[in-house]
Amino acid sequence: MPSTPEWFIAQLRADIQALGAQGGILTPSVYDTAQVLRDAPPGDPRPAVEWLMRQQRADGGWGAELMPLARHIPTLAAVLALRGTSDTAESRRAVEGGIEFFRRTAEAWAFDGPPPDDIPVASELILPRLLEEAAAVGIELPHKPFQSLSALGTRRRGLIARMKHRAGTAPIHSFEAWGTEPDMNVLDGSKGVGNSPAATAHWLRLRRAALPPGTRELPEEMLGAEAFLRLAAEATGTGVPGVVPTVWPIVHYEQSWGLLALFSTGLLEHPGLRDVVRPQLDGLYRAVRPEGYGMSEFFVCDGDITSTCVAMLKETGYAVDGGLLQRYQLADGQFITYAHEMQPSVTTTAHGVLALAILGQDVSRQVRWLAEKRGADGLWRMDKWHASWLYSTSQVMLALCRAGATEVVRPAVEALLQAQHAEGGWGMSRMPSLLETAYAVHALRALRAQGLFGPEVKRALQRAARWMGTQQDVAPERQEMLWTGKELYRPFRLDRVFERSAMLALELDSLAE
Predict the structure, then answer these.
(1) DSSP state, 242?
(2) pLDDT tens digit string along 305-340?
(3) CB half-sphere exposure, 382, CA atoms < 13 A
(4) Which residue of 52, 352, 433, 436 has the lowest C-beta tally within 10 Å?
């Protein structure tokens, strides 16, 4: 296949046009599939059970090995699901292997202080609940390592108990971990609960238990929830009923991050892409709510997607209300994603800085906050929404470059150059990763206007271009799941836009030399 700008433009055009379609497409989730099997299984659960068993790793656990703390939730959920839905010799061995893995690795959660900021979404609610359910069926597991997490969960449950339950709000996303009644107020316009297959399946179980004995026809709200689960399963592309993603729908999240990838490589208004980019921008412009933007029209607005949408729209000439960002700013400079969250996010704050800088507003407090979150090596290594430090570092670098905070960026540049693999790519593991290399390319190309784009950076990008060129015929790695939800996942379209926009930008750079 020829490595030409025209080829990459054609690929990107198809990806951009598809952003948001079908509610977004994602990798299937072990945890959510296990919860669906437990609470609202399809008519024939055997294909989903078989799929679940195929996901077990050689060490007995489930979940991506890249992030150890993201493995205990899917492992324990899979154990409970298999124990309750299958009684074959193979499933019994899978259950035994999962229990042994959990016992062997539980100490990973034994923190001296509070849990770190990058624990999986709602794990302080979900994991203690799964431990209780395991104990109820006679599975003996260590509880002591989870004391810090459980304490955080107790605080979270207290907050939830004092809130009025409203559909599409952040607490509802983890309804399966705390909901006890089939509250109609948690259903949203998607006919699901909290953009979550697991939460929707739990609500269905509660609602089914509340039906009068002998009920033959399901009420409309239950039929709607079942339809939600079917559509969510279709978004994984597996074709297996009951195999669902960890979050869905993600329409505006997929759109805004895809456009962000184009922005960070200078391609947002490229002549070969403009006619497919504009409809996506128009759609986002029309989708604004008084509070900003959320991952879909059915979910609460958040500071991260609102900042990204405001930045992209302002940059491309739309009239936007910068006041949308005010509700997400704290006095210390931090941007929050959701109200009452307990772990901060450097990437959410970085996107807030990007939006404010594009709007021409002062970002000195936010820059100081980001500088304080920088590691001793100059990198931003921890974020609640992504497992890779290359993503968090790249997003902060992009924002700080736009804000002109050169001195804060400089140590990160040196560390990023040193982290390049011999092959020319970047990645947290021993082998480079196409997606993580794309993040590094986005960050380094942003240095062009900052006086930091020296010969070392140019050579690093040339090496990256050669390595990425060897990867263009390789199908995207389905197991390269780096985004953090209740477990790690991959939103296919937007990841491809990050990868292909970096590759196109490097191709254009080589032609311009």
Answers:
(1) T
(2) 999 999 999 999 999 999 999 999 999 999 999 988
(3) 14
(4) 433
